[in-house]
């Protein structure tokens, strides 16, 4: 806790979640629990948060820095997107034990707020409406990244 400024980390986390679109529709009482269960994680520039195919049970919210979304293929990588402060990603890992569909690499030093599946699912058992509020922005982001990947792959193909 940060007693010097009179605000603890949970209060800071709560304020952050309140300003992120994926969480804006969630009532404050539920956000307080989410803020309490979240942890801060730091990555150095060039470090991968996870790789395509990894099993990772966390979702990430960027507090500072930038990260690249990359699809690693057998002979090259395709840049899909850049995440910056306030971007939330990896939310599907909170709902299901799935392999990552892309890699995330820190471009700069990166600070993230993370929540793991076990903590999130405990919250969902008490407040199932949270999942519904989060699904819409998560699905829209997935569709956007898939479209960017397909466009990149289509541009690489030669038609006869």
SSE layout and pairing:
Elements: H1 9-18, H2 28-37, E1 39-43, E2 48-50, E3 58-64, E4 67-72, E5 77-83, E6 88-89, H3 92-95, E7 103-106, E8 110-116, H4 117-126, H5 129-156
Antiparallel strand pairs: 1-8, 2-7, 3-6, 3-8, 4-5, 4-7
Helix pairs in contact: 1-2
Q: What report would you give on this structure?
A:
The protein is α+β, with helices and mostly antiparallel strands and 160 residues long. It has a single domain (9-152), classed as Jelly Rolls, CATH 2.60.120.10. The chain has 5 helices and 8 strands, in the order ααββββββαββαα. It has a 4-stranded antiparallel β-sheet with strand order 1-8-3-6. It starts with 8 loop residues before the first helix and ends with a helix. Residues 1-6 have low confidence and may be disordered. This is Cyclic nucleotide-binding domain-containing protein. GO terms for molecular function: cAMP binding; cAMP-dependent protein kinase inhibitor activity; protein kinase A catalytic subunit binding. It comes from Desulforhabdus amnigena.
Mean pLDDT metric = 83
Shape: globular
Number of strands: 8
CATH architecture: Sandwich
**CATH top level class name:** Mainly Beta
Distance between the termini: 63 Å
Pick out the low-confidence regions.
1-6
The neighbouring-strand order within the major sheet is 1-8-3-6
What's the domain count?
A: 1
Order of helices and strands: HHEEEEEEHEEHH
CATH topology grouping: Jelly Rolls
- Rg computed from alpha carbons, rounded to a whole number of angstroms: 17 Å
The CATH superfamily turns out to be Jelly Rolls
Structure classification:
alpha+beta
Helix content: 25-40%
Question: How many distinct helices?
Answer: 5
In terms of DSSP E residues, the strand content is 25-35%
Taking the sheet with the most strands, its summary is: 4 strands, antiparallel
Domain Cyclic nucleotide-binding: 22-141
Protein name: Cyclic nucleotide-binding domain-containing protein
GO cellular component, one term: cAMP-dependent protein kinase complex
GO molecular function: cAMP binding; cAMP-dependent protein kinase inhibitor activity; protein kinase A catalytic subunit binding
